[in-house]
Amino acid sequence: MTENNRTVRHDEAGSRYVIEVDGTEAGFAAYTDHGDVRDFNHTVVSEDFRGQGLSSPLIREALDDTRSAGKTITPSCSAVENFLSKNEEYQDLVAQ
User: Fold this and answer.
1) Helix (H, G, I), strand (E, B), or coil: what is residue 95?
2) What is the CATH number of the domain that holds 20?
3) Which positions fall inside the N-acetyltransferase domain (predicted)?
4) How many domains in the chain?
5) Percent of the chain with pLDDT over 90
6) Tens digit of each residue's pLDDT (9 = 90 or more) over 42-83
7) In angstroms, rounded to a whole number, what is the distance separating the alpha carbons of residues 16 and 8?
8) Which long-range CB contacts under 8 A does 84-93 form with residues at least 24 apart?
9) What is the pTM of this model?
């Protein structure tokens, strides 16, 4: 996804989704796959980029891509849990 000067990409080798601003890595959402369940366990936005609303588009893209891959999620990360609490349309992704 590219929006204005923001790009979210899936770094499969690094098991994370990365958000870049003007080509500079601004943050990431890391995960560990356990079969068909993707455990989002750490989300970080670099200090220089905080307060710019980057975590929501990062997490949204990561969850959309995870849904497309046919996986469910475990929201171990508080940022992902917070996102889910505000975006009920993603609740069906949470593994039971």
Assistant:
1) coil
2) 3.40.630.30
3) 1-96, 9-95
4) 1
5) 94
6) 999 999 999 999 999 999 999 999 999 999 999 999 999 999
7) 10
8) 87/60, 90/63, 93/63, 93/66, 93/67
9) 0.93
